[in-house]
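Worked example 3 (structure in, sequence out).
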């Protein structure tokens, strides 16, 4: 009797978790991806320092990865996508 009650409680909990997960939806509150128009004289370091807190090297790597940059100097007028 004791084991049967625990099994029913476990099955009920599993059903409730399954129901909760099936009704979950992505948030609509996420902001759109930021973009940055490169101006003359800007570098990835200056952009990362201005837009991200802490050591800019991590942000530079993320910007390079997101935009497929290969180490070439930035050209004015280039639009960069800035990851969150």
């Amino acid at each position: 009797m004791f084991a049967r009650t625990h099994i029913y409680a476990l099955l009920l909990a599993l059903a409730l978790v399954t129901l909760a997960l099936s009704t979950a939806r992505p948030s609509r509150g996420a902001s759109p991806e930021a973009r940055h128009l490169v101006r003359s004289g800007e570098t990835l370091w200056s952009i990362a320092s201005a837009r991200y807190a802490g050591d800019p090297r991590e942000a530079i790597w993320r910007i390079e990865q997101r935009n497929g940059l290969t180490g070439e100097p930035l050209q004015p007028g280039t639009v960069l996508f800035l990851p969150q």
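Notes: The mean pLDDT is 86. The two ends are 54 Å apart (CA to CA).
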